[in-house]
Design goal:
Rossmann fold; 7-stranded parallel β-sheet; binds NADP nicotinamide-adenine-dinucleotide phosphate
């Protein structure tokens, strides 16, 4: 018996990086996976790879900032697989700049994708899960939302907002058997962090007590824990997966 046998999972921003790895781990644990991304072709490719490997997966394009597209995603997942048992709100972008240089557009864009996107995903999935009487929602925050990083007033604000959103939502839907939790990854090796100047990446890596940057699988395993019955009595928590950085 696998941890997600018979379960249906939706992962936003699932075509690459952490989201792609969450899709992989969930599929390995028996879930039917809906890979979603603003990059529709990327989502199709990721779902096809899972399919070829013998797993059950489907792709639905969704820009998480659009309420209409979020409805298409959630309705599509239910239509295709019959339920949504795990929703992972993972889609993200960075538009780093110090406050002096950050434009209003860069601030708004990051807030929209992370905070609005996470709210729409949580709200829409909770609508389905409330009716089912069970479900688990996992929101991707960041250690940046706990400690703040220079050049990330937009991103840190959005990621801290996701913590409040997660806790409030957990209180609203717990009585219906729906759990809502967040993960705060530290420095994880993906396209998002590979875009950082090498010296800054190295400097940050040296601050990590476990002595290395994380792999997407480190986050995917935490998402598996929060998305499965292993965490059946856990809701409204923020799980730091950061190798001990910023404890
Ligand atoms: P990534 O490799 O850049 O992947 C993010 C995915 O989200 C991309 O496929 C991206 O598509 C997609 N996306 C962007 N805007 C979207 C939108 N409006 N609607 C739907 N999908 C959208 O990032 P990652 O490093 O895997 O990060 C995944 C999550 O973990 C993010 O929420 C991030 O903030 C969080 N996180 C990451 C780290 C880290 O060290 N990597 C640390 C803390 C938290 P495009 O490429 O086409 O834009």
């Amino acid at each position: 018996m696998k941890l997600l046998d018979g379960r249906v999972a939706v992962v936003t921003g699932g075509s690459q990086g952490i989201g792609r790895e969450i899709c992989q781990v969930f599929a390995e644990q028996g879930a039917s996976v809906v890979v979603s991304d603003i990059n529709g072709e990327g989502a199709e490719n990721a779902a096809a790879e899972l399919d070829v490997a013998g797993f059950t997966a489907s792709a639905i394009r969704c820009d998480v900032t659009s309420p209409e597209e979020m409805h298409v995603l959630v309705d599509g997942a239910v239509e295709k697989f019959g339920s949504i048992d795990v929703m992972v709100n993972n889609a993200g972008i960075t538009r780093d700049a110090t406050m002096r240089r950050m434009t209003l557009a860069e601030f708004n864009q990051v807030i929209q994708v992370h905070l609005l996107g996470c709210w729409l995903g949580t709200k829409s999935a909770a609508d389905v899960m409330r009716e089912q009487g069970q479900g688990a929602i996992v929101n991707l925050s960041s250690i940046s939302g706990k400690v703040g990083n220079i050049g990330q007033t937009n991103y840190a604000a959005a990621k801290a907002g996701i913590v409040g959103l997660t806790k409030a939502a957990a209180k609203e839907v717990g009585f219906k058997g729906v759990r809502v939790n967040a993960i705060q990854p530290g420095l994880i090796k993906t396209a998002m962090t590979m875009a950082m100047p090498e010296d800054i990446f190295t400097q940050r890596e040296q601050e990590i007590p476990l002595g290395r940057a994380g792999d997407p699988r480190d986050i995917a395993n935490a998402a598996l824990f929060l998305g499965s019955d292993l965490s059946s009595y856990i809701t409204g928590v923020v799980l730091e997966v950061a190798g001990g950085r910023h404890i």
